[in-house]
Design brief:
alpha+beta, Cytidine Deaminase, domain 2, 9-stranded mixed beta sheet, about 35% helix
């Protein structure tokens, strides 16, 4: 699995597996992030890197209810580089908003939002060589990979109310447009390929 994370940019989108098992360390981090975010409604972020040909997951960093500030992430990425870690991806959470909590509690319907416009633009115009990004929501895990066919057309998604409302649809459209492999899971140790 480490090769897929390290080399996704060299793999054709048609060669990505249908089912992907999550590395034990990454899955443990996902569970810790989900629990912490559920408890205090603050976003969490961690980077995933390579050091001495091994996958390394950073400690969790706590942000606010809607982000870990870019300046904080940049400082952490600089520290990783100074410690010989090549950052290749990240994991972050999205706290459930009040409407999602109400719908889930009263109607017993799980609500998923998908990557935010800011997440997707950040991934497209990454300050590092990010090859993948995990999103951990209350009831779902999403993962996108850059592939050999990835095209960065210096395009940005415009942030507006409709885009925020339809995050999953935007995530799928973004993945198609830029030739990204998209996976999802409902809290399992494996992910199924969507696109």
């Amino acid at each position: 699995m480490i090769d897929l994370f390290k080399n996704s940019i060299d793999i054709s989108i048609k060669d990505f597996p249908k089912k992907l098992t999550i590395n034990e360390e990454i899955f443990g981090t996902i569970q810790l992030m989900r629990q912490a975010t559920k408890k205090d409604s603050n976003e969490r972020w961690a980077y995933v890197g390579i050091k001495n040909d091994k996958l390394v997951v950073s400690k969790l960093y706590k942000g606010t209810n809607n982000q870990v500030p870019t300046s904080k992430r940049f400082t952490l990425l600089q520290e990783a580089e100074n410690n010989g870690i090549k950052v290749i991806g990240d994991i972050h959470t999205h706290p459930a908003d009040i409407l999602s909590k109400i719908v889930t509690k009263i109607l017993h319907i799980k609500v998923y939002h998908g990557f935010s416009i800011e997440d997707l633009n950040g991934f497209l115009h990454s300050e590092t060589e990010n090859k993948f990004m995990f999103l951990v929501e209350a009831n779902k895990i999403l993962l996108i990979f850059k592939t050999r066919e990835f095209k960065n057309k210096d395009w940005q998604i415009k942030s507006n109310w409709a885009n925020k409302l339809y995050g999953i649809r935007i995530t799928q459209e973004f993945s198609k447009r830029f030739h990204l492999a998209l996976y999802e899971s409902e809290n399992e140790e494996y992910l199924m390929r969507v696109l």
